[in-house]
Write a structure and sequence with these properties.
The complex is a heterodimer of chains A (265) and B (278).
Chain A: E1 8-15, E2 25-32, E3 37-41, H1 48-55, E4 63-68, E5 71-72, E6 80-83, H2 95-105, H3 110-123, H4 139-151, E7 157-161, H5 169-186, E8 189-194, H6 197-203, E9 206-211, E10 216-222, H7 234-250, H8 254-264
Parallel strand pairs in A: 3-8, 3-9, 6-7, 7-8
Antiparallel strand pairs in A: 1-2, 1-4, 4-5, 9-10
Chain B: H1 7-11, H2 16-51, H3 63-75, H4 78-110, H5 112-126, H6 134-140, H7 144-170, H8 173-181, H9 186-221, H10 229-238, H11 242-269
Helix pairs in contact in B: 3-11, 4-5, 4-7, 4-9, 4-10, 6-7, 7-9, 9-11, 10-11
The chains are: A alpha/beta (265), B mainly alpha (278).
């Protein structure tokens, strides 16, 4: 499998719901170079998930536009594929059929589908489950199938919406590493939306912090660490602490503590 | 479930096939035993009819005269002709019900405003006894066949509509989002996602519809027509050939049983729900 990344340009993107006074976010600008793994961190309700849905073409922004390699995102496309919090596999299909479903939509030949699907299944290390019923797989294995289902389309951009938050800690750590290494090996972009600082540090090349109402990008930080990353590594922990401090500052976490401390004295 | 789930676990426990066969055999034995009890009761009732001087004229209702009537009816081609005539009406009526019911059900399950507008009128129409449409059907349709097919269709369309809509309502909306995300066209969404997702529910609805249609068919055939199982029963009653009557009743039971069994098989075939059908 060979994939190339894409240059992502978010230009003046706004999103407002007619029923709400304050826009979800207002005039967001963001550029991500080809092959970058970008993490968008923020608390619930800051609009990060909406931003991701607009990137995937599943929702429309009210203003502004998104360019991928210069082409405007006008709707969903197998070139930019989203992975959700839950795997959402089709239970009447085997692992192989689930992984190949996007290619059957594109009317590929049976033989070509079989080859590509095989590659994708090996990539996520599920060869021995290829013919299994997806309902017999564990949560982590199911999310691997969902990953393979996205990767088989050879997307330029993989969008991840808190994709591992429903998994246990061990499975989550393993998948975070695997997705990063696969993306680096194949060269596609990642945009991952998360509220988990660890996830950003393990997976991303750069982290941006979204906060406020309307939401905006308030900080960004390069995650310049060697690969593979281990969360016990002191370098990783140092960067994690810095990112956490920035995140809390952005989210105005410290202010009430300071005020409280002042009141006691 | 753990990460360590094995393919062997996925394919079923060792010896699962043997276990399933044993279970199948046990189910068959229970079925045969149940039918045997029914047959013995019938036999007893028959002999009581025969031995009571006041009911001895009706002795041919018994099991043995009934079984004797089968070869006679078969040789005369009566069972075949009646079954074909009834089968045609049933098939046409059910076919129309499915052709109308599935799209309406899909619409109800997918389009919120349609669901809200149609729910009350549909629930109202559903509660009208199908046979009460009879006078209207006779006025509207030129042939008796047409009226009967209409009655079967209107009786069986509701379970199909409601089962389809209910099936769609249970579907994970993210399945559509994922499919759209992976480039499914609206037609592919229908054929590759919606239909396989709810085939189980549609067949469950058709199974209910078949039950209702089969119930409506026989009384509908008492009127007007000169063919079909309902007519043949009425004819047997008028000619006082009670053993023919019971043989035909038995035929109705057998055909219904086989049709229902076929649908149960289809439901199982298209079920992806864990824990099997029902």
């Amino acid at each position: 499998m060979s994939v190339r990344g894409t240059k992502i340009e978010i230009q003046g993107l706004s999103q407002r719901y007619p029923t709400r006074k304050v826009p979800t976010f207002n005039r967001v600008d963001l550029v991500s170079p080809p092959g970058e793994a970008l993490a968008i961190i923020g608390r619930s309700g800051c609009g990060k998930s909406t931003l991701l849905h607009i990137l995937a073409g599943l929702t429309k922004g009210t203003e502004g536009r998104i360019l991928l390699n210069g082409t405007e995102v006008a709707g969903p496309s197998p070139r930019w594929v989203m992975m959700f919090q839950a795997p959402h596999l089709y239970p009447w299909m085997t692992v192989t059929e689930n992984v190949g479903v996007g290619l059957t939509f594109a009317r590929w030949g049976k033989k070509e589908i079989a080859e590509r699907v095989n590659d994708a299944i090996s990539l996520v290390e599920l060869q021995e489950f290829a013919q299994a019923n997806v309902q017999d797989l564990s949560g982590g294995q199911q999310q691997r199938v969902a990953l393979a289902r996205s990767l088989v389309m050879e997307p330029e951009l993989l969008l991840l919406d808190e994709p591992f938050s429903a998994l246990d800690a061990f499975t989550r750590a393993a998948l975070q590493k695997d997705v990063r290494s696969i993306s680096k090996r194949l060269g596609f972009n990642i945009v991952i939306v998360t509220h988990d600082i660890d996830e950003a540090v393990i997976m991303a090349d750069r982290a941006v912090i979204m906060a406020g109402s309307p939401g905006d990008i308030v900080h960004e930080m390069d995650v310049d660490l060697p690969n593979p990353r281990d969360r016990t590594d002191p370098e990783v922990q140092k960067l994690r602490a810095r990112l956490m401090a920035t995140f809390q500052e952005a989210a105005n976490y410290r202010k009430p503590e300071v005020a409280l401390a002042g009141a006691v004295h | 479930m753990s990460e360590a789930a094995t393919p062997a676990g996925a394919a079923g426990e060792p010896g699962a096939a043997g276990l399933a066969a044993a279970q199948g055999l046990r189910r068959l034995l229970w079925g045969v035993a149940g039918i045997a009890v029914l047959a013995v009761l019938w036999l007893i009732a028959g002999s009581m009819l025969e031995n009571n001087p006041r009911t001895t004229n009706f002795a041919t209702f018994g099991l043995i005269p009934t079984l004797e009537a089968f070869p006679q009816l078969w040789a005369a081609g009566k069972i075949q002709a009646a079954s074909i005539a009834s089968g045609y009406r049933l098939g046409m009526g059910l076919g129309i019900a499915i052709a109308i019911g599935v799209p309406i059900g899909v619409l109800m399950g997918r389009v919120k405003w349609f669901q809200q507008y149609s729910n009350s009128p549909f629930q109202f129409l559903r509660m009208i006894s199908p046979l009460s449409w009879m006078p209207l059907a006779v006025l509207v349709f030129a042939t008796w066949d047409g009226s009967i097919i209409f009655l079967i269709a209107i009786a069986s369309v509701w379970p199909v509509i409601f089962a389809t809509a209910a099936g769609l309502a249970k579907v994970d909306p993210a399945w559509f989002k994922v499919a759209r995300n992976l480039g499914a066209s609206p037609l592919q969404m229908l054929t590759k996602i919606i239909m396989p997702a709810i085939a189980f529910d549609i067949f469950s609805g058709i199974r209910l519809a078949l039950g209702v249609a089969w119930i409506v068919l026989v009384p509908a055939e008492y009127l007007g027509v000169t063919s079909g199982l309902g007519y043949a029963i009425e004819d047997a009653r008028e000619t006082l050939s009670y053993n023919h009557l019971t043989a035909l009743v038995l035929t109705i039971g057998c055909i219904g049983y086989v049709l229902d069994g076929t649908l149960v098989m289809l439901i199982k075939r298209f079920s992806w729900h864990r824990g099997g059908a029902n």
